[in-house]
Amino acid sequence: MSGGGIKPDVTFAKAAHGTLENAQMRRNLRHATTTIREKRLRAVAEVADWQELRTHGAAVKDHAMANLGQYLEELEASVQRAGGRVHWARGATEARAIVAQIAHSHGAREIIKVKSITTDEIELNGGLAEHGIHAVETDLAELIVQLAEDRPSHILVPAIHRNRSEIRELFQRKLGAELLTDEPKALAEAARVYLREKFLTTKVAISGANFAIAESGTVCVVESEGNGRMCVTLPEVLVSVMGIEKVLPTWEDAAVFLRLLPRSSTAERMNPYNSFWSGVREGDGPQEFHLVLLDNGRTDVLADEVGRQTLRCIRCSACLNVCPVYERTGGHAYGSVYPGPIGAILTPQLLDMKDKNANTLPFASSLCGACYDACPVKINIPEVLIYLRGKVAADKSPNIESIAMKSMAWIMGDARRFEMAIRLARIGQGPLVRDGAIHWLPGMLGGWTSARDMPAMPKQSFREWWRNRTSHPPAAHDPAGGPIAPQRPEEAERP
User: Which of 34, 261, 292, 344 is 20 to 30 A from 329, alpha carbon to alpha carbon?
Assistant: First the structure.
């Protein structure tokens, strides 16, 4: 199905080997992430209480998740009081069927969409196509991806892997646009001309949701282009698909995230377009509103004491823009609509740690910690990565690596065994040492030296040096050069 999904087709390592060969993509990514990263640092530096704001945001999300059932029921009641309808979807199949049924009930063969990673997660576009309904992406980057029959590679900027000349050629071929230049203004105008007719003639629109406020039933979408505002105001029918973790208790809570999100994502002080709607109002905006509350594995993540912090994510993409692994491999290597560090911990959990390819994602990290420092809601991504790696390892059948690790644990669990191993290693390394280093190791160990040299074992270990030092302490000397007799502890001068 078009639109993505969350299940990787191959392991991360195999996919990364393919994407690393695309030099143009790497150049595009390096330029884009470096630019966004520098702008974000300047925007964040303007907020004196940024760290306190991050702590507050994390606390709000944790509170909402700890009381999720209560706030979801409150949200449902508030939406219904405002004239909207609420649907509950346990998984992707159920959510697609709900949206398709709503579109069919209005005779819609074409719908327009606001950029929504949640609808990509459930492969909504492909699901609607199976029912004879064509979904038109109205976000510029999402439109580029759709026209290219491609997959998103970034949470915030789905077409970050493409440059202007590629987009110009695509618009000429797919939209019939006559473009004499690849200047951004010209490209945006070509998309605007194509989309304007869709905005004015389409009866049904689909959106995601950045947040939903339980106390009022208000749904929120923030964006930078204005296409979202057109989608949530012009059509007769609006359907919003929302992950259940997006609920917030109050308007005051939403205010926290409206400060955190734009600076973390687009490095703006405020999103240009902030759309809020509560149910329906006669003669103003859509006259029929549906809110689809999607689980799709989220309650399983919530049940995990360590992994549940992943659900704090507000999809800002700050972690992607600082990740050295993402910058080099690109989003497609992750095989999920959730790429980068957040995808490395979210995708395996949404799939309940049962997908062998998704379970390689926690290893797609150097554990440098930059993602944790950048996250506006303080998700400790390195902690979750290590935790998930442990779960993957625990589920594996015994192999050479696991046997070797258990052997190492046994050796290092006893000082005498450890020292004996050190002495044996010092003897055994002899034929491998050249110029004080080991440049080649045999068999499976060769993976270590394929990209780095290994220091040779020293002639004396720290333990041996320390033992010799304490058994033969060096004599102290006075300024005149004579030896000083060692003092007994009780004779030593006290501070």
Answer: 261
User: 492: pLDDT confidence band, cut at 50, 70 and 90?
Assistant: very low
CA–CA–CA angle 275, 117, 246 (5° rounding): 60
Give the β-pairing of 483-484 and 476-477: antiparallel
Let me know the angle formed at the C-alpha of 126 by 227 and 242, rounded to the nearest 5 degrees.
Answer: 55
**How many residues are listed for the chain in this entry?**
495
In contact, 372 and 379? CB cutoff 8 Å: yes
Query: Distance between CA atoms of 205 and 338, rounded to whole angstroms?
Result: 23
- Which tokens sit at 373? 């420092």
Contact assessment for residue 324 and residue 366, using Cβ atoms and an 8 Å cutoff? yes
Q: Closest by alpha carbon to 467, among 415, 390, 432? A: 415
Mean pLDDT for the chain overall: 91
Contacts of 470 (CB under 8 A, 6+ apart): none
DSSP for residue 84:
-
Q: At 227, is the secondary structure helix, strand, or coil?
A: helix
| CA-wise closest residue to 214 among 378, 98, 60 | 60
> Which DSSP string corresponds to 423-478?
HHHHHHTGGGEETTEE----GGGHHHHTSS-EEPPPSS-HHHHHHHHHHSPPPEE-
Domains of the chain and CATH, by start: 12-300 (3.40.50.10420), 429-493 (no CATH)
Strands (E), 184-317: 204-207, 211-213, 218-223, 237-243, 247-248, 273-278, 288-294
Q: Give 156's Cβ-side CA count (13 Å radius).
A: 24
- Cα separation, 388 vs 344, in Å, equals 9
Banded model confidence at residue 485, pLDDT cuts 50, 70, 90: low
pLDDT tens digits, one per residue of 23-71: 888 888 898 899 999 999 999 999 999 999 999 999 999 999 999 999 9
Beta strand 437-438 with 454-455: parallel, antiparallel or unpaired?
antiparallel
Pairing of β 204-207 and β 110-113 = parallel
Q: Which residues pair with 88 in a beta bridge?
A: 293
> Cα separation of 378 and 371, whole Å?
9
**Residues 6+ positions from 200 with CB-CB distance below 8 Å:** 234
C-beta of residue 324 within 8 angstroms of C-beta of residue 291: no
Q: Count of CB atoms within 10 A of residue 16's CB?
A: 20
Going by the DSSP 8-state scheme, the letter that residue 235 receives in this structure is S
Q: Contact, 36 vs 321, CB < 8 A?
A: yes
Q: How far apart are CA 449 and CA 453, in angstroms?
A: 5
User: Is 47 within 8 Å of 53 (Cβ atoms)?
Assistant: yes
